[in-house]
Amino acid sequence: MSAQVHQTSSLKEYFAALASGVFTSLKGMWITFRYVWAVKPVSIEYPEVREVLPDRARMRLFNDVQNCISCTQCAMACPVDCIYIASEKFPEGTEIKKTSNGQPIRLHLTQFTIDTALCCYCGLCTTVCPTECLTHSHDFEFSAYTIDQMKYDYLAPDIIAWRDRIVKS
Amino acid sequence: MHKQLSDLINRNVTGANAVAFLAADKKNDSSITVEASHIFKVVNFLKNNSENSWNSLHCISGVDYMDHMEVCYMLTNYDPNNNKGVLILKAKLTDRVNPNIDSIVNLFLAANFQEREVYDMFGIKFNNHPDLRRILCPDDWEGWPLRKDYVAQKYYQGIEVYPDNKMNMEDREYIVRQEMIKKAQAAKAQ
Amino acid sequence: MQTRWDIGEPEKPTINQDTEQLKSELLVLNMGPQHPATHGVLRIEIWTDSEIVAHAIPHVGYLHRCMEKHAENIDFRGIIPFVDRLDYLAAMNMEWTYAAALEKMLGTEVPRRAELLRILTCELQRIASHLMAFGTYALDLGAFTPFLYAFDYREKILRLFEEVSGARLLYNYIWIGGLWNDWTNEQLERVSAFCDDMEEEAKKYHELVSMNKIFIERTANVGVMNIDDCLTYGASGPVLRGAGMKWDLRKNEPYSLYSEFDFDIPVGEAEHGVVGDCWNRYMVRMKEVVQSIRIIRQVIEKLEPGPIMGKVPKVLKLPEGEIYVRHECPRGELAFHLVTKQDEKMPYRLKVKSPCFTHVSMLPHVAPGQMIADFVATVGSIDIVLGEVDR
After folding, report:
1. ipTM of the complex
2. Could you write out the three-class secondary structure of C227-290?
């Protein structure tokens, strides 16, 4: 088979193509040259300058365990099964506390672990949470050195300490 | 449309036994089921006849019902003046050990990749296919993944397919483990 | 893992008559899974005779994530994040096709405002996807500047999407029965301003890239896929329209509210090169951006306040049935074949017909006889995204 090369052209066509190539490239270069002085640069100098994320941005999950009623709706809604919840009944006669929006907490939450490495940040768990304790924060810089560090135990004190920064009320 | 088309097929292709399934309402799609052994003749007729022709193959999809498998051929007609929608043509295969059906690559070249995918996922062999090998799974994968009775192999070329550290079994079985720990502590206390 | 050998080596054609007595062999070159110009992990085994390609055999499956098997174990709402990840550069269109398939099977009525906003969002996504195709195509051919310009404008769309849905690329926004969040009037005004800017930009791209003689020389008459080839290979979308057929599902089989809008279908008209070559496919995409802007302006005029979510039961259980729904996505016709059993929360079988899968199968037909540089131009012009090819 023969290669699909262009047919050889006459001398006039050769110079016409050459002139057209130069002319159209110069026209393109005029467009890019304008960017030297006429256009404001769009790059921002991260990490010194950071953008403010919109309110609905779905970044790292945060669960406010004080308000969790262990309904396990989030674990059932999750498409990748990355939320692991375990709870048990309170011993008899314990005072029943209430969440911030009035619902009684009848179960004692003993395990709330999210495997952030599996999480696909779809937001389905936050929409079904009845007390809105599970929310998306705006943290996106949370890479870890080992994959085990990506399992977040929300009952641990260091994660509970994020509450002041994230929960607004 | 499906009833007339199945009658047309039955008149022109002997032995095709085209049966039209008409959907009750717009929520489902109607389809035509033909004999698997006559699929090449039926598709040839549908492509080349002058009354009701379909000039392109949209997709070939396999479905595994537990007792039989079906290969669904979706045909369309790309003609701006005559839009007929999509025709679903089904062929039933009852042999689960060694299912095979004729390939329609000589009619529509689109069938090349589509039939390779059905072979890869279900194990259905297509006779006279020029290059029938796995397309999405690795070439030496064992098993037919989309069959309902598929169990994945444990090791692939020495790599564990479901490694323990990624399965998160300790997290899933937290309650069971806590109860076992309590029972062990209670047994020790006695 | 190479099993080409069990079906025999391909026939070696006598390409180079002059040097045949030198007993030259074909060189096997892997345009391998890691390559800046294959738009993902696509491996193309190219057999070349010096610079001319003799055979090109695509190997796909490097991004296979078993989405169809996963879909059999996840309930219907949870499949939407999986469907996003099929063609990740045009995720809204993927979600809409899936939601449309389910809504047709359930018989739910989607409120008018939700349908109009879905059209707005998907046309904006079409512009973003074509900008990406334009930028990376120019980058494949060696031009770095149009890539940055395209991404500047694509960034404006992605920021709008982040404000509305919460994510920049994988949205989970178009839900079964309607939408998740609503657009505010301020955001719609920004969309109008963006449309005005984008029309100016499209003219600029025309001068910068489309009419550049070097670009025309590299893409015109290259990788010709004429209408007969397209029909037998099942091509659709810009590939089929670049070959000259005036077929667009939004006009020929209107779904949703597209019949109310006034827009044209661009077809490859061979202002340069022949119909069906890379330049015409590229021009079809550029002209589609302008048509999408027309549709968006009409949607903004027609919008009225109202609900954005229809009546869908909390626990979705579908009746038994089978459905096949296809939509016009930026890369071609995407279709879902959904089979359900009575009162189950999960699909029995979800098959995705991806347009890029059929377009990749056209490469072995077009490649023989091209130079390697022309082959790179062809692969870029069919605009493949491996997430869709491999699922």
Report:
1. 0.89
2. HHHHHHHCCCCHHHHHCCCCCCHHHHCCCCCHHHCCCCCCCCCCCCCCCCCHHHHHHHHHHHHH
